[in-house]
Input
Amino acid sequence: MSSVPLVVCLMGPTAAGKTALAIELARRIPVGVISVDSALVYRRMNIGTGKPEPALLAEVPHRLIDVREPWESYSAGEFVRDARTAIAEVVAAGRVPLLVGGTMLYFRSLWQGLSALPEGDSEVRAAIDRRAAAIGWPAMHAELARIDPRSAERVHPTDRQRIQRALEVWQLTGLPLSAQQGRALPPGDLRFLRISVIPADRQLLHARIEARLVDMLARGFIGEVEELMQLPEMRPDRPAMRAVGYRQLWGMLAGDYARAEAERRALAATRQLAKRQLTWLRHEACEQTLAMEAADLPGAVEATLRSHGVQDAISASSG
Output
């Protein structure tokens, strides 16, 4: 097994301090940081995604940041392909791949592998979109619940892209998407060390989420969304606009509600995201779980890495 590359996965809910931790680790040991975040893949979305500042990215490059325009889609399958390429590049450079983020679907797709699902069919998707325009996406979600209840449980009733894909797979194959995803075999050419950073005090995490939103608004988050709205390719149903904060500020700027309501909705959505992330993490068999509040998180991660066979890399960085 020692010849199989070790990939370190650093996970946690939003606002847990994962980015700062990854940057500090990169200053201490030879790692190559790979982002696992469905919002950071988008260009032009910097403030509201918590994207590291350019100076930090220059010091500690992050792969899989700014790889799509905000009107483009990016699937779990594309992430797996890109992440495996990035992992190979980091290993070839003699470094330890450090995957950092909170998009748990991306992590799980990488660990478990992806089923050989059918390619998208434009005619089938167009037909699904026409029906959704007539009855609405919540009604389409209800249809999905009848044919594939397991997938419907994991998809929000207004998540157009994922509802469309599940219905598309059903129409193309006659089998539920959830059943086909279960057929995937985990890749055997990589070893994964999963480290989760979670709050011992949920209220502290909520306070961090609120403070971060206040900071983002002070740094121009609303202006960033205004600029996105002015792009001719952008619409509120684009995949990037599922990102928390963006969706709520778009509604405010479109005149649907006042700023105070937008901030309330953004805060509530971010807390719900953190709750979902923590639920995912509770169901994952992580090799190490660390408290977000720990006094020396980088030191704790370093100790975990030593205990799982990366002593040589750590020693090389200090030599």
Summary: Strands lie at 6-11, 31-36, 62-63, 96-101, 191-198, 288-291. Residues 122-181 form a domain with the Histone, subunit A fold (CATH 1.10.20.140). The mean pLDDT is 91. The longest strand covers residues 191-198.
